[in-house]
Design a protein that fits this description.
By secondary structure, the chain is an alpha/beta fold. The protein contains eight helices and six strands. It has a domain of 177 residues: Decaprenyl diphosphate synthase-like (Undecaprenyl pyrophosphate synthetase, 3-Layer(aba) Sandwich), CATH 3.40.1180.10. The structure holds 3-methylbut-3-enyl trihydrogen diphosphate (2 copies) and magnesium ion. One 3-methylbut-3-enyl trihydrogen diphosphate binds next to helix 2.
Length: 260
């Protein structure tokens, strides 16, 4: 991929990342990248720090990943920040996570706008603390006209919960004769998901070496290429993202068909 003279942000690339960018095939870029950001707790434990220090350190990785994705002209980036199941964690950890999220929004909103990035939330927003909801809505509204990249944060997100929500809405439409059961198809279901209108993720990245999807985008990852890196989320930087995309470009996507 050729480096463009004009980039959305004066974003400096180190020599190694530059070489990696040049290795990319511009015709085989993923449209949508989804990331399970994992390993914050282990990152902190290894340094004899409290787990929340790992969450705080993870913010830098978020910033770098968002800006590198934008720089590469990725259409959509989805980061898994808090699952519906993460409420099981100690209250103190959950409240720090919520506080960090608000801090991130306050600090980054201007940069998101400058980089023409549209911020959105995937998940059951109603169950989040009121102040968090207020900031999320503000962030969403303030960036709604941006056209450069869609940046989704999955919050209080569960893949099964998303499907339950979608089926409920479909049932209501059927009851009110807005939808015929015999006509029900995959796009009707897609249209009711939190991700309606977005392409499915082409590349799913999970950090920290865990080989599972942890209830993330269950419907949407049907044919995603999965790349797991041992790097812990707070250490994840642009060169790791590039490594994932380079690996993605080596894969052969058959969608059940035969080799081209
Ligand atoms: C990912 O890191 C962040 C969230 C799930 C909120 P973890 O907190 O899961 O870190 P590990 O897996 O315990 O190392
Ligand atoms: C998945 O990580 C959720 C997020 C990254 C937000 P977890 O750490 O919660 O997943 P499990 O418990 O290891 O499956
Ligand atoms: Mg984890």
């Amino acid at each position: 991929m050729k480096l463009k003279a004009e980039q959305p942000d004066p974003f400096l690339l180190d020599a190694r990342s530059k070489r990696m960018v040049e290795e990319l095939d511009p015709n085989r870029m993923p449209r949508h990248i989804a990331v399970i950001m994992d390993g914050n707790g282990r990152w902190a434990q290894r340094r004899h720090l409290p787990r929340v220090a790992g969450h705080r350190a993870g913010i830098e990785a978020v910033r770098d990943t968002v800006e590198m994705s934008r720089w590469l002209n990725i259409e959509a980036l989805t980061l898994y920040a808090f699952s519906k199941e993460n409420w099981k964690r100690p209250k103190s950890e959950v409240s720090v996570l919520m506080r960090l999220l608000r801090e991130y929004l306050h600090k980054e909103l201007a940069r998101l706008n400058r980089n023409n990035i549209r911020f959105q939330v995937l998940g059951r927003m109603d169950d989040l603390p009121a102040l968090v909801q207020k900031d999320l809505v503000y962030g969403r509204e303030e960036t709604r006209n941006n056209t450069g990249m869609i940046f989704n944060v999955a919050l209080n997100y569960g893949g099964r919960a998303e499907l339950v929500d979608a089926f409920k809405r479909l049932a209501v439409r059927m009851r009110t004769n807005g939808l015929d059961l015999d006509q029900l198809n995959e796009s009707d279901i897609e249209g009711e998901l939190y991700t309606a209108g977005l392409p499915d993720p082409d590349l799913l990245i999970r950090t920290s070496g865990e080989m599972r999807v942890s209830n993330f985008l269950l419907w949407q990852i049907a044919y995603a290429e999965i790349w797991v890196t041992p790097v812990l989320w707070p250490d994840f930087r642009r060169q790791h993202l590039l490594e994932g995309i380079i690996e993605f470009q080596k894969r052969e996507r058959r969608y059940g068909g035969l080799q081209a």
